[in-house]
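Hello,

I think I submitted the iron/sulfur cluster job twice by accident. Can you confirm which output corresponds to this input? Input:
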Amino acid sequence: MIVAPQKREADSIFYELTRSICPTCRAVIDAQILLRDGKVYMRKRCVDHGWFEGLIYSDAMLYANSLRYNKPGTIPLAFSTEVKAGCPYDCGLCPEHKQHACLGIIEVNTGCNLACPVCFADAGEGYNLTVDDVERMLDQFVECEGEGEVIQFSGGEPTIHPEILTMLRAAKRRPIKYVMLNTNGLRIARDERFVAQLAEVGPTIYLQFDGLLAETLIRLRGRDLVDEKRRALDRLGQAGLKAILVAAIERGVNEHEVGPLVRFALGHPAVRGITFQPVTHVARHLPFNPMERITIPDVIRAIEKQTDGLFVQQDFVPVPCCFPTCSSVTYAYVDGGRVTPLPRLLDVQAHLDYITNRTVPELSTRVRKALEGLWSASAIPGTERAADQFSCASCGLDLGPQATDLADRIFMITIKDFMDAYTFNVKSLMKCCVEVLVPDGRMIPFCAYNTVVYREQVRAQLSARGRR
Ligand code: SF4
Ligand code: SF4
Ligand code: SF4
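Support: Only one job matched these inputs. Its output is below.
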């Protein structure tokens, strides 16, 4: 008897086809999204450089479920480019983009007072924007947005730009709801006068804060900065400025610091939230294995385990304004030692489910709007608006005695996974709501800016201008 050869089953489920880039030459290529062993991978082939595969989300069920939170985008008032070469070469924003800019980033310089081994901006020699540049960029932002949501000043290290206070004031003068300063904190720790001047302007401080251990800071930032970071935070508190901590998380470096960081952030009077960012493997980064990188579900699991369930996986809900796999968020009401995550009081997932709940009348539109405000890239904890939205969403719920200082009792945890050449997905990019503003008027989605060639092009142009 002839035994027929047996067919075998594929080791993964083919989930969808999208477009990405080659990690070697950055040509745009097709990419398959595969579900395997409960995780999500991107697999793709470049005709010149062969096959590539990388982990994009370590929980297939959460990935598939997150599509429920994909909300319709809001069309900006104006676009800066035309549709010509196709996505991602027409940034932007071009008329094919699916979302307005919740958050505009202005990188005022490329120089820095640190030389971190991990730096997606590849800080170093380059350019300083002028105040005129920034005024023009802000005007363009307002033209596209009407009333803008958030402007974040970044770099390089923006606090070493000699005109940074003037630039912050220029943003404050315009119809932009919130102004943020993204910093490593060194100048804040060292320059009391600068902190006093900052306090007069009043930006929310987005403070790089990767861990509480010297080893973490040495690996990621090149130096033990633990004391300086804490001093910076204390200075901000004394000056009445509010901070959101930003922790880059890398496999094998500081995953074990996630829980302690949450507890530290909850306990510091200047801190209103913490953002975890799996390290973006573009420009300067440590050696990494794309199949074992940290993704959003890994950070959530680490938070649950390392905080002994103070926050659990069900507390985190994908953010609907961008593509929902880009970011997950939770909020908690903090009353002394009592921490109550909002999703334990209210079914946030049901309210932000745009696929199944469109026609369920008992879900209040008012509550959904409030939750949309909180679950947005433009949400800033510590502000009156966040307090109002939280108060509306939690209306009638048992928070204990309602405080008059509600804005200071709301704590936010965000996890954002910016894309690199292994994870770059045009489908997510087209709904990006975080844009880098460029002096020529373009507003380029952040992950395209870092991963396609935009950052290098803009830097070369602006640096050459300085040499003329
Ligand atoms: S990412 Fe958006 S702005 Fe850029 S090319 Fe694609 S659709 Fe246009
Ligand atoms: S990561 Fe930030 S602080 Fe570090 S070198 Fe880059 S710009 Fe400077
Ligand atoms: S910056 Fe990247 S990760 Fe964030 S919303 Fe845009 S595409 Fe998604």
